[in-house]
Design a protein that fits this description.
Bound molecules: adenosine-5'-diphosphate, D-xylulose
CATH superfamily of one domain: ATPase, nucleotide binding domain
Structural class: alpha+beta
Largest sheet: 7 strands, mixed
Helix content: 25-40%
CATH topology of one domain: Nucleotidyltransferase, domain 5
Number of helices: 21
Radius of gyration: 22 Å
Distance between the termini: 52 Å
Length: about 525
């Protein structure tokens, strides 16, 4: 760990497959990174891709204790690597959005009085009234979604208040299901945290508040007044307001580090905690998104983010409060079938080698001779659809493609969908547009080339990391304690040398994709519900 400055700012990211940490110094340089990979490092929890898929194919959960154990392990690894905890001025973090944690009554007392001689997992193992936290991949709450929409006068009416129509993974609907299926557990629950505010609670040593941006992913918060919407709360479950606690700004200083973390690892007692937020809002902060940019995150899920000043929510996509400018908003589209589908097809066609996958993409023709594919291995969010679909140049359904056709159809299909749905939100590429790519797959240049060609725009990546969510949290940690009263977020963190041009669009492909995007849109309408 090398850094000339003495101050460090920490960002944590409790994502789908891993728990990660990044430390930056006050020159904003990344000086430390570490991670815990759930499947590999914590096999005792039997997760696949960080999650447990249930037999019905709809319920997807994670044992809450896995996340606590992962935090113990991450801190242990940091200590073993000589991380200088005593230099940390402030920390913040992020988590996969929408997932929820159900704390048993009296747990806060325990959080405040943890014994530094023992691990967190030993002490918190009996703290959760629901052992398995529902997460963003869950799509089992269609019934609860209907009830919530009806309670406010329909899908558009709900979007007008909360920024989104009812979505199965959104936390309000998940809470409603827990209340209906397990009322005793709900009754014994004293506090409900999001994944982000849960991790914040472990750092703070008490219940941490939910921030406005992650709170926007619950179907429970009015995104304009930034308060809980009582009609929505009451439609989901009783006494919900008390169980959710207060809502705060995404850069709010919420308190000092817990006595436990300070005594066990050597964080200074003065170390500040800044509110944690969702991974997509944190990514927006990490890439320092500007109004003309389009951010595409290629993590477990693929997401697309845009800056909005005057949002008009519709029943497509989501509007969240913007984490770096509370008076602004962000649009989000989420595609469930992202990296995991790319991995499955890579494993089947390329003997698990990304090099071979890249090679195939480089050697196959843009436009794939008219072949189009859609690979919704899991029930997709955008659009709501399931199954694998292959079409030839005449829109005739096929059973199989060749290896090269399959790989190109997958990647082209994924980015054609993104362009179709971004345009449906009113987004159009201009001369100024930069696509900022991030997430695990953004290191794959062949994938980025297809992205660039389909959008006809240059693609940039962030120097030094593909994990903009973690980086964004480290920025928010710094911003929350030092910056915000004096200057705007961009004044502090926007630096042109932070971006690296990854690929430029090939002009010859423009016509091919302009035509293909129209065909894709019609085919997608055919296969979605
Ligand atoms: P999350 O934050 O959701 O856990 P990440 O942003 O860390 O996810 O991305 C993890 C994914 O990155 C993996 O599932 C893997 O498929 C993908 N990935 C890693 N390296 C490559 C690569 N060279 N090409 C394409 N995808 C990659
Ligand atoms: C966003 C979404 C996912 C999760 C996991 O709405 O469901 O992107 O945040 O990354």
């Amino acid at each position: 760990m090398e850094s000339k400055s003495s101050s460090l700012f920490l960002g944590l990211d409790l994502s789908t497959q891993q728990l990660k940490v990044i430390a930056i110094d006050d020159n904003l340089s990344i000086v430390f990174e570490e991670s815990v990979i759930f499947d590999k490092d914590l096999p005792q929890f039997h997760t696949q891709d960080g999650v447990c898929r249930h037999k019905d194919m709809l319920c997807v959960t994670v044992p809450t204790l896995l996340w606590v154990t992962a935090f113990d392990l991450l801190l242990k690894r940091m200590k073993e690597k000589g991380f200088e905890f005593d230099r940390v001025v402030s920390l913040s973090g992020t988590g996969q959005q929408h997932g929820s944690v159900y704390w048993k009554s009296e747990s806060e007392k325990l959080l405040k009085n943890l014994d530094p001689e023992k691990s967190l997992s030993d002490q918190l193992k009996d703290c959760f009234v629901v052992d398995d936290s529902p997460i963003w991949m869950d799509s089992s709450t269609t019934e609860q979604c209907k009830t919530l929409e009806e309670s406010v006068g329909g899908a558009q009416a709900l979007a007008n208040i909360t920024g989104s129509k009812a979505y199965e993974r959104f936390t309000g609907n998940q809470i409603a299901k827990i209340f209906q299926h397990n009322p005793k557990a709900y009754d014994k629950c004293e506090r409900i945290s999001l994944v982000s505010s849960f991790l914040a609670s472990l750092c703070y040593g008490g219940y941490a508040p939910i921030d406005y941006s992650d709170g926007s992913g619950m179907n429970l918060m009015n995104i304009f007044t930034k308060t809980w919407e009582l009609v929505c709360l009451n439609a989901c479950a009783p006494d919900l307001k008390e169980k959710l606690g207060e809502l705060v700004s995404s850069s709010k200083h919420i308190g000092k580090i817990s006595r436990y973390l300070s005594q066990r690892y050597g964080f200074p007692k003065s170390c500040d905690i800044v509110a944690f937020t969702g991974d997509n809002p944190a990514s927006l902060a990490g890439v320092c998104l500007k109004k003309t940019d389009l951010c595409i995150s290629l993590g477990t899920s693929d997401t697309l983010m845009l800056w909005l000043d005057n949002p008009k929510p519709t029943t497509k996509g989501h509007v969240f409060v913007n984490p770096i400018d509370e008076s602004a908003y962000m649009a989000l589209l989420c595609f469930k079938n992202g990296s995991l589908v790319r991995e499955t097809i890579r494993n089947r066609c390329c003997e698990s080698s990304w090099e071979e996958f890249e090679e195939s993409l480089r050697n196959s023709p843009p436009g794939n001779n008219g072949n189009i594919g859609m690979y919704f291995h899991e029930t997709e969010i955008t659009p709501f659809a399931q199954g694998t679909y292959r079409f030839n140049n005449d829109d005739v359904a096929l059973q199989f493609f060749t290896k090269d056709e399959e790989i190109r159809a997958l990647v082209e299909g994924q980015f054609l969908a993104k362009r179709v749905h971004a345009e449906a939100l009113g987004f159009h590429i201009t001369e100024e547009t930069r696509i900022l790519a991030t997430g695990g797959a953004s290191k794959n240049k062949a994938i980025l080339q297809v992205l660039s060609d389909i959008f006809h725009a240059p693609v940039f990546i962030i120097h030094g990391t593909t994990n903009s969510a973690c980086l964004g949290s480290a920025y928010l940690a710094l911003y929350g304690v030092c910056g915000q009263s004096k200057v705007g977020f961009h004044d502090l963190f926007y630096k042109s040398d932070k971006y690296e041009m990854a690929v430029l669009p090939n002009v010859k492909t423009r016509d091919i994709y302009d035509k293909m995007v129209k065909r894709y849109k019609l085919l997608e309408e055919k296969v979605s519900n």
